[in-house]
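In this notation, each integer encodes one residue's backbone shape. One such record reads:

___
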Amino acid sequence: MSRNINPAPQYLDGSGNPYAFGKLYYFDSGTNTQKTTYKDAAETIANTHPVLLDSGGRQPNVFFSGTAKQILTDGDDVQVFERDPVGGEN
């Protein structure tokens, strides 16, 4: 399984402010089909969809199998970016 590893511990806007309470949506790569992500490497505890960032713009653990399309929105649901694909098998 893949773990979404963000090299920066926070999601920040261009001014350096965190995307407080932003949302990360995950879909099967190349589609708009919702992808289940998990809090644990064994893929037994599902995350919410979307995955919610905390007040500092930090994400919780995100594990999934294969690849995914990832969309970040701010706390007001305005899309910040879309990345496809993310993840991949180790």
